[in-house]
Automatic annotation (TrEMBL):
PANTHER family: DNA-3-METHYLADENINE GLYCOSYLASE 1 (PTHR30037), DNA-3-METHYLADENINE GLYCOSYLASE I (PTHR30037:SF4)
Name of one Pfam family that matches: Adenine_glyco
Statement: the UniProt record of this protein carries the keyword Signal: no
A GO term for molecular function: DNA-3-methyladenine glycosylase activity
GO biological process: base-excision repair
Keywords carried by this UniProt record: Metal-binding, Zinc
SUPFAM superfamilies the record matches: DNA-glycosylase
Protein name, as recorded: DNA-3-methyladenine glycosylase I
UniProt binding sites for Zn(2+): C15, H28, H188, C192
Organism phylogeny: Bacteria, Pseudomonadati, Pseudomonadota, Gammaproteobacteria, Pseudomonadales
Species per Swiss-Prot/TrEMBL record: Pseudomonas karstica
Amino acid sequence: MQIPGLITHEGITHCAWRTSAPEYRHYHDHEWGLPVADDIQLFEKICLEGFQAGMAWITILRKREHFRRAFEGFDYRKVAQYTEQDIERLMADPGIVRNRAKIMSVINNARRACELVEETGSLAAWMWSFEPSADERPAVVDLAYWTKNPTSKASVRLSRALKKRGWTFVGPTTMYALMQAMGMVNDHLEGCICRQQIEHCRQQFNRP
């Protein structure tokens, strides 16, 4: 019997969304859910999740290399220095999502990231302090859980903390997607071959 949300191909079971677009295969198998502790990589993920708001993730994933070039690798220290001229440059770039509010949010968040790093020493360490406790994690991760729970208590806490610091486009749903992407939670469905692999990586991961 086929389990909702999973698909078996050549004897290997994966989350079904892996097969919905060619780009998803590598992203699902080699990136989504792997723990991340690098400040710039985390800033990129925050920005791209913000750009995704109201859009399909595949659109952002297909444009990711363009985004990286446009925003200088998402080095928040460089982006924090952007001016109105940079905003106009980005608005004229067809390779990215040309949404002024989201572009300005990236610049604002870069400045907030600089402040946070100056204060705490590490964006990654601060972010990982919001990792949900064991009793906040579901016993079983299935399609029904995903459908009904686009946020979590931890993502609400993270969202509120970031907003208090002046960050934008960091709502609870966006922050939950970030937690999934950066490995703070392991939401590969039960039965997906990657779930145990990711869990092993999480167990071996040294939290910053």
